[in-house]
Amino acid sequence: MPQLRQDPIAGYWVVIATERAKRPHTFTQAPKEHTKPGRECPFCEGNERMTPAEVIAYRKPGSTPDSPGWYLRVVPNLYPAFGPAEGSLYPHQVGMYAVMQALGVHEVIIDGPDHHNDLGSLSVEQVATVVKAYVERYLAHKDNPIIKYILIIVNHGQEAGASREHPHSQLFGTPLVPAMIEQELAGTKLYQQKTGRCVYCAMLEEELQLGDRLIYENGSFVAFAPYASRVPFEMWILPRHHSSHFEVINEMQRYLFAESLHAVLGKLQQGLNDPPFNLYIHTTPCHDEAGGVYHWHVEILPKLSIAAGFELGSGIMINTATPESAAEFLCSIPI
Asked: I need a surface site. Which of 83, 91, 213, 260 has the fewest CB within 10 A?
C-alpha cells in the first residue's frame, strides 16, 4: 500500500508508491556517449581564451593566469543569472507586483582539466581541492552587503540542466534568501522551540540508530536516503556534529567531506551507470542572526523520474523507489 511521508523540516509530503515501486537496479541508465574534449569545450585546458578571465586558479608553478597548467579554475559565468555584485537593488512595485535588480554573483568552478572525470571519479584529493575552492569563493563573497545567500550547485548531465559536459560547479550569490531556505530555517527554529533540539541532529541520531537508510559514514559526515525522499535515490550528506556554517570547515573536515562526496557519487555512478543529478549545498544565510540553529548539509537528487501532472499540480512528489531499498542497493556498491 502506498505511504504518505512528511519531511520534518520543511513540512512537505511525498508519496512512496510501494505498489508501483521498481527494483533499484531497474533505474540503471543506458550507456552514454560522451563528447570528446577539444576546441569546442571552453572548460578544457588550452581553451582558456574562450572563458572570461579567471578569478582564481590553482596552478602549476610558473604557469600564468588564463593559460594551460591549472588544476582548477574559477571564472565568471559568461551568461550570469545574477550581477554585478554592487549597485542599487532598486526594489519597487509595478502595480501589484514586486521587482528589484538581480544583483549578485554567478561563478563557474571548473573542477579540473579532464573533460570526463567528475566528483565521483576524481581522486579524493582532487575533490578536496574542489571543496577548498568552494570555501574560498564563499568567503570571498559572504561579507558583501548585497549578497544575502550563497548557493553552490552541481548540475550533472543534460537532463539535470548541465549546458556543458565538462565537470564543473556553480556558485550563485543572491540578493535575497531563497524561499526554500526560509522554509527550512522556519522548520528548524520551530522544532527547536518545541523540543530544544536541532531537527537535523535528531534526524541523524535516528538514522544512525535505525541504519536502514544509511549509505555512507566517516568520522565527520553521514550520508543517507531521507525518510521522505522526493525522488528515487535522493541522498543527503550531513556533518555528524552540529555545524551551522559550511564555510567554517577546517582542512581535515574538507578532506572528509570530499571523501563523502566521492563515495556517494561514485556509488551512484557505478550502481546506476552515471545518472544525471542535481547537487546543492544548503547553509546558513550570509548575514543570519539566528544563533546557529541551522545545520548545513548537501542534498543530491538524481534525475530518474519525471514530475508529471499530479506532482506539478499538487506539489506532492511521487517516489517509486523506497529510500530503504535505494540505500540497500547503494550500500552494496563497493567504493
From this structure: 91
Per-residue confidence (pLDDT) for residue 61, from 0 to 100: 94
Cell 575552492 found at: 133
Of the candidates 67, 53, 257, the residue with the CA atom closest to the CA atom of residue 152: 257
Contact 102, 246 (CB under 8 A): no
H-only helix segments in 232-276: 251-272
Q: Is 130 helix (H, G, I), strand (E, B) or coil?
A: helix
Q: Which residues are catalytic?
A: 168
Residue 288 CA to residue 134 CA, distance in Å, equals 20
Long-range CB contacts (within 8 A, 24+) of 252-256: 252/220, 253/220, 254/128, 254/131, 254/132, 254/135, 255/124, 255/128, 256/218, 256/219, 256/220, 256/221
Torsion of CA 103, 105, 106, 111, to 10 degrees: -170
CB atoms under 10 Å from CB of 96, counted, come to 5
Say if residues 318 and 14 touch (Cβ distance below 8 Å): yes
Distances (CA, A) of 314 to 95, 146, 244: 29, 34, 32
Dump pLDDT digits (tens) for 57-90: 999 999 999 999 999 999 999 999 999 999 999 9
Spatial contact of 91 and 99, defined as CB atoms under 8 Å apart: yes
Reported as a single tens digit per residue, the pLDDT across 235-289 is 999 999 999 999 999 999 999 999 999 999 999 999 999 999 999 999 999 987 6
